[in-house]
Specification:
The chain is mainly alpha-helical. Helices cover 83% and strands 0% of the residues.
Length: 83
């Protein structure tokens, strides 16, 4: 499916803001690479919708700050056999 880039940026940002999703989760949901999601919401979105960009940037920062906790929880679950 071909996307209008500006539309895709806004859709991705809205999804991330609504759900608090990570870049990886958003990429999986929309069927695109995480590099594309990251580029869209950190670079292109700034030109498309500044207020949405700032809101999304806050969520991405929160996700980045928490990623070491998610990784530890995933490792713990793996070794407990809870995958």
């Amino acid at each position: 499916m071909r996307w209008n880039v500006d539309e895709r940026c806004a859709l991705l940002a809205a999804y991330i803001c609504d759900t608090g999703a990570t870049v990886r989760a958003a990429a999986k949901k929309f069927g695109i690479s995480k590099s594309t999601v990251h580029k869209d919401v950190t670079t292109r979105l700034r030109e498309v919708d500044r207020s949405l960009f700032e809101k999304t940037a806050g969520i991405l920062k929160k996700n980045k700050d928490e990623r070491h906790l998610r990784g530890g929880a995933a490792t713990r679950a793996k070794y407990k056999g809870e995958e």
